[in-house]
Amino acid sequence: MTQPVSNCPNCGAKIVFQWSSSVQTVCPYCKSILVRTDVDLKKVGQVADLPPDSSPIQLNTEGIYRNKAFVVGGRILYEYDQGGWNEWHITMNDGTSAWLSDAQNEYAISFAANTTGLPAAAQVQVGQQFMWNNQRYTLTVITPAHYRGVEGELPFQYWDKTDVTFADLRSETGKFATLDYSDEQPALYLGEFVEFDDLKLKNLRGFEGW
């Protein structure tokens, strides 16, 4: 597969997209947020310095989920009252796009669900139940978060954000769901919690003392 190649319109650096499905990337040299158009790259913003991160996961970390290899291509970073978390965009070896949530040593993998008729943020409350894919979910927490930044490649434009809301749900069988109110239309992600060791991660970030 040919990797799309272009030059950063801000600093001129060579920009190579690892995945043809990627829409946005961050220039590793000048931190410009770049969006692919039909003919070239357009600078749409600038990434501020991201806060120190204690996660061992980083761009190009590789792992295994349900016998499928994946690689980390991008990250969205959020903060909320109790700390922060990462949403790592991962690409499976069959081309499937997924997300690896990384919050206070709790990890989960989820996939976008093509579901219509999702409730608006003002309509949800803790304790509500929903049925998706023949699975009953109970809403457990609503989290107002603050967008802090991005890095790497993403499958959509995501850069000019401030405060966003997430509603997390769980099932009695250990599955989880997230209603994402980052955009005008809510999005649903369905997945499950995973053990760090079960992901068989490699190319992790090293820390002094490890």
Structure description:
This protein has 2 domains: 5-46, no CATH class; 62-199, no CATH class. The protein contains no helices and 15 strands. The mean pLDDT is 92. By secondary structure, it is mainly beta. The chain has strands spanning 5-7, 14-16, 24-26, 32-36, 41-46, 62-65, 68-80, 83-92, 97-103, 106-113, 129-132, 135-152, 163-170, 175-180, 187-194. It has an 8-stranded antiparallel β-barrel. A hairpin with a 4-residue loop joins strand 4 (32-36) and strand 5 (41-46).
Task: Produce the secondary structure layout.
Layout: E1 5-7, E2 14-16, E3 24-26, E4 32-36, E5 41-46, E6 62-65, E7 68-80, E8 83-92, E9 97-103, E10 106-113, E11 129-132, E12 135-152, E13 163-170, E14 175-180, E15 187-194
Antiparallel strand pairs: 1-2, 3-4, 4-5, 6-7, 7-8, 7-12, 8-9, 9-10, 10-15, 11-12, 12-13, 13-14, 14-15
